[in-house]
Amino acid sequence: SLSNDGAVLDQAREAAQALMARDPDLAEHPALAAALAEVGVNLLRNPFEVVKQQMQIGLDSRVSQAVRNIHGLGGVSAFYAGYVPLLMREIPFSGIQFALYESLRARCLS
Predict the structure, then answer these.
(1) Each residue of 38-57: pLDDT tens digit?
(2) How far apart are CA 9 and CA 78, in angstroms?
(3) Are 52 and 46 a contacting pair, CB within 8 Å?
(4) Using CA atoms, how far apart are residues 28 and 17, in angstroms rounded to an integer?
(5) Is residue 45 a contact partner of residue 16, using CB atoms and an 8 Å limit?
(6) Full-model pTM
(7) Alpha carbon distance 67, 75 (integer Å)
(8) For every residue of the chain, which 3-state class applies, written as one string?
(9) What is the per-residue burial (b if ≥16 Cβ within 10 Å, else e) of 50-83?
(10) Is the dihedral of CA 77, 82, 83, 84 positive or negative?
(11) CA 110 → CA 96, 103, 106, distances in Å?
(12) pLDDT confidence bin for 5, thresholds 50/70/90
């Protein structure tokens, strides 16, 4: 996992929210910003996770070996094994968490 993945996710949420703020209909949906951030961040994170998991279960002892073996199994798409189930888990959690955060923040600031 990326060591600063929480910070990266927060930055991605803020960027998504800033883009969505241009459209008044979208600006009111912080959960959508969180979902967009999860898709983007996990698109970058997933290949690292696949390599890490391959090494954790002992299939490979070196990163370069794991990368070659994963790529040999299915090309670039093999690095995205489990991506859809990951999104199915992360998007609802992140959406609820971020919407709740924004709601509480708005109440505390008013």
Answers:
(1) 898 899 999 999 999 999 99
(2) 23
(3) no
(4) 9
(5) no
(6) 0.73
(7) 10
(8) CCCCHHHHHHHHHHHHHHHHCCCHHHHCCHHHHHHHHHHHHHHHHHHHHHHHHHHHCCCCCCHHHHHHHHHHHHHHHHHHCCHHHHHHHHHHHHHHHHHHHHHHHHHHHC
(9) bbeebeeeeebeeeeebbeebeeeeeeeebbbeb
(10) positive
(11) 21, 11, 6
(12) low
How would you classify residue 15: left for phi > 0, otherwise alpha for psi between -120 and 50, otherwise beta?
alpha
Other Cβ atoms within 10 Å of 88 Cβ, number: 9
Tokens linked to 85: 């189930």
Q: Which of 88, 52, 43, 44 is nearest to 70 (CA)?
A: 52
